[in-house]
Amino acid sequence: MEKFIKKIKKNYKAHFITSNQPPASVKAFMEEIGEEEQEFFKYYKSFSELDKDLWKDVVVSTLERVKSEAVFQDYAVREKMLSFLFTLIEVLKDYHAFVTYQFKNKKNERFGLTPTFLDDFKHEFMLFANEMVNEGLDTTEIVNRPFISEKYAESLWVEVLFIISFWNRDKSENKEQTDAAIEKSSNFAFDLLGQTPLDSAFDLVKFLIQKK
Amino acid sequence: MAKENEEVESQKSIPASKVQRAARFMKTGVKVGRNYIKHYARNAVNPGTGKDLLHEDNARDIYDSLSELKGSALKIAQMMSMDKNLLPAAYSEKFQMAQYSAPPLSYPLVVRTFRKDVGKTPEEVFDTFTRNAVNAASIGQVHQATLGDKKFAVKVQYPGVAESVTSDLKMVKPFAVNILGLNDSDVNHYMDEVRTMLLAETDYELELRRSREISAATSHIPHLRFPKYYPEYSSRHILTMDWLEGMHLDAFLKTNPSQEICTQIGQAMWNFYDYQIHHMKSVHADPHPGNFILNEAGELGIIDFGAVKEIPDEFYNKYFVLLGGDITEDDERLMKIFKGLNFIYDDDSQRDKEEIFTILKTMVELLGRPFRRDTFDFGDDSYFREIYEFGEESAKAKALKESKKPRGARDGLYLNRTYFGLYSILNQLKANIDTKSYWQENTFQI
Q1: Looking at the partner chain, which of A82, A173, A180 has a beta carbon nearest the beta carbon of B108?
Q2: Per-residue model confidence (pLDDT) at position A127
Q3: Cα-flanking dihedrals φ and ψ of residue B156, to 5°?
Q4: CATH assignment of A47-211, given 1.10.240.10, 3.40.1350.10, 3.30.43.10, 1.10.357.10?
Q5: Domains in chain B: boundaries
Q6: Which chain A residue shows the shortest CA-CA distance from B114?
Q7: What value of ipTM does the predicted structure carry?
Q8: Most buried one in A181, B117, B221, B354, CB count within 10 A?
């Protein structure tokens, strides 16, 4: 079973590399790889479910690789997030044609930033993001703010989305510009999550109002 | 934009408001230059003293010496090219470098760069590798690493620098054209040179090759030290070399070294440059204090070979004939050389020709002075004052101020920078130099 799913995924991914698009139909695809059509439906309802699963693979293997690095435990939260993003784009290299097609044919089927094919990816990532935010709050790298704190993990997700689409459009040699984008966007994000001048400004204003 | 009435007054002169804006531009340039220098100050490593304190000291010191630069060495550059383009071009370059140096690379990015270029993480390559940078380099940063009992300096470059250089220069160009009122061809004249040199600086593989070539060719000169380079741990974005113990110029001078030691270092530096320029015809064109490591034994360590200027033969012959012993006594020959270097054009008016000629002749005498003696005392501040005063005078010269043509050859840009950097360091070392030069063995034809 495991082996069969692997075969499907491998050939499906390969199809994007050779023809820059998904197979015409499940029937055609299964014929192409010499399997019975109904076998496919035992595991997936449609290609779009398979898409979601491929994306989930991306984030799962990224997290595996990130966490297996010895130095990861010593990292501050900012560096853990950086390490996640750098590893993510290394993993994505393998999925390039697939990703390009997905983003090019992304439909605005619902309100919000996240395309449906990223649903499972996001679910997995949010577990990691919440872990990161909690750790950051513990180490005071991230500042707890009423109401806003709940949205921290979501803002990290926005960064991930930004990086994936930046990477997808990056035409620079070796995608060097994406490396710079990751550095800069993470610095920005974590500067906002940490103590900022706005916090002390807010604190001062609150003090002045209460004094009155 | 320039006011109408100012434009009408005289088409030939630069409108006053433009001059003011140019002055402001220069001021910014100087400011940025200071940051650049301050940034370089952070380079210094002194195992003995507290690092923060040292950084502060260095920043202040180099800042001070830059103020002196403004008076002396910077003027040399300005005068030798006699070109109003030179300063903005030089500064735009500093601006670039200052920009890139600003944010340090995160450790995950260092790991990423290693993975991409070497295929391994720094920990897999070395026994130890500092998580934080120990120094800043002009377009990246330096980490210290060890392997066995060897200590390395590992330079890691910021991603995408090469691409940014090209696009940033494109941005600087219209800026120079509009604000300084130069025409396109004047600016291109220098921009091409600056771009070539900057792009070369972003290629660490090239730097590695050149540093090996230059260090091999000059290793016979006494009191020089070069780090060994390790291609197996290097790539386009990573450069690994031996860690040289010692101090940068300012920190070194603070330890009150004897004049004998200072002179020995100065002489080594003079010989090093002289040999490159005249024998190798390619030169380490960035004699910035940050690129040298000095030690108490009076040895000069040379790191960073990013900016290497190749000197074309044709330019070489025209440029260095100016430093010949009796050249200032032969006006006719001198005029011919100035024309050859595009300082003076055939279609200049007779009055302009004369004015520019007089200025250039004085300049040649002044700047070539160290070459016309057997020994020259660079500690002599009156020499630098003389240069400064002359610079002030010549800046007022009408023929130059109103010139619409680029004056001076583009190849001179980095060579001038090399000399003014060298003179200024020798001045700080108060070195009395045996200025016998290799070029005197050569004969010149024009």
Answers
A1: A82
A2: 96
A3: -120, 130
A4: 1.10.357.10
A5: 1-446
A6: A86
A7: 0.84
A8: A181
